[in-house]
Amino acid sequence: MSTSQTEPNKGELFEFLCRMGDNTLVLGHRVSEWCGHAPVLEEDIALANTALDLIGQTTLWLDLAGKVEDAGRDADRLAFHRDVWDFRNLLLVEQPNGDFGQTIMRQFLFDAWHLSQLTALMESSDAQIAAIAEKSSKEATYHLERATDTVIGLGDGTDESHRRMQNALDLLWPYVGEMFVADAVDEAMVAAGIAPDPASLRPAYDTLVNDVFTAATLTKPQDDFGHRGGKSGKRHSEHLGHMLTQMQWLQRAYPDATW
Amino acid sequence: MVVEKPSLETVWGWLHAVPDPEIPVISLTDLGIIRDVQWQDDTLEVTVTPTYSGCPATTIINLDIETALRGHGIEKLALKRQLSPAWTSDWMTDAGRAKLESYGIAPPQPAGGPERCPRCKSTQLEKISQFGSTPCKAQWRCTDCLEPFDYFKCI
Ligand SMILES: [Zn+2]
């Protein structure tokens, strides 16, 4: 559908695909850190399966990124051999797990954005992107359903669980704004019909999270200040580098090791 | 070695005998993940769609397809991955659903939850967790016989 005038250059498209893949990679790794540590067995299994879905989606995004870049890097190469400043994930997803409530709140804030982003990407002018979005959206729907139920259950739960969920919301809300701020890469994607304008997803997001917070008896912080620098790669938080030392050590210590 | 190309019907029959690696009671064709089988000149092209994008069984499934077809003398083989349309549990065959239930796994339902306990057939059920032992399953419990069971998620 797009004309040659609006087609993004290879670099911009690569950048966009890395953003999608790095979000699911970093969050997937974070969630996998719970494996064997969750409060109850069912949650342990749920978190591990969520992580698995996210890592699977990562493979699809980063494989496509590697093909677009055409420089001989596949998904593994991109995941395990880039340094912290080359990552393009949102600051939200690199935040530490904290307690279980913080992990669930981070998941909810991400899932609510992720599902609407994927739903919009299903209409992408790029057929491969639309196909990955279609596949991923089924999993994201399920993740959002679970995160929503859990946020409500814990928010409107005991005094202790309510307090922890409110703390988590206060802590993580400043990382929400970054999801909706457009830069040159986003503008190129919009012009090519590849991806939606990030700001266009905000009203539905606000409606959804407000409804859930009301049901969860949680209060959204008044201040709408938003940290930035994750998706542009300009300024990651100190947590990402520490995470990568764990995630990448095997491939860095034994390059190209395989099973 | 193969002097004549086997018919597509024959190939489907071979694939029907390949079990799902995680739920071996059903076959890959019961699961509905084999979307197409075609001859492209003398290469057999098999189109497979993943159930979940991160399902670890996906690579094993491809290996099992290849092993089975090579065992039947297919030399030139291409496995294609298809993402769209995305796999849905609606593609599971009725025979597959019946086999799942007799194995103790409640088959997927459009309503989003199991229809009945796979053991005592009671409809008094409660959800334990949205996730189960594999990405495709959730955990439920029967409040009559009190047995927990796996439910094959509807997606
Ligand atoms: Zn029962």
Automatic annotation (TrEMBL), chain A:
InterPro entries: Aromatic_CoA_ox/epox, Ferritin-like, Ferritin-like_SF, PaaA_PaaC, PaaC. It holds the Pfam family PaaA_PaaC. It comes from the Bacteria. Signal peptide: none annotated. SUPFAM superfamilies: Ferritin-like. This is Ring-1,2-phenylacetyl-CoA epoxidase subunit PaaC.
From TrEMBL, chain B:
Residues 9-70 form the MIP18 family-like domain. It holds the Pfam family FeS_assembly_P. Residues 116-153 form the PaaD zinc beta ribbon domain. This is Phenylacetate-CoA oxygenase subunit PaaJ. It comes from Sulfitobacter litoralis.
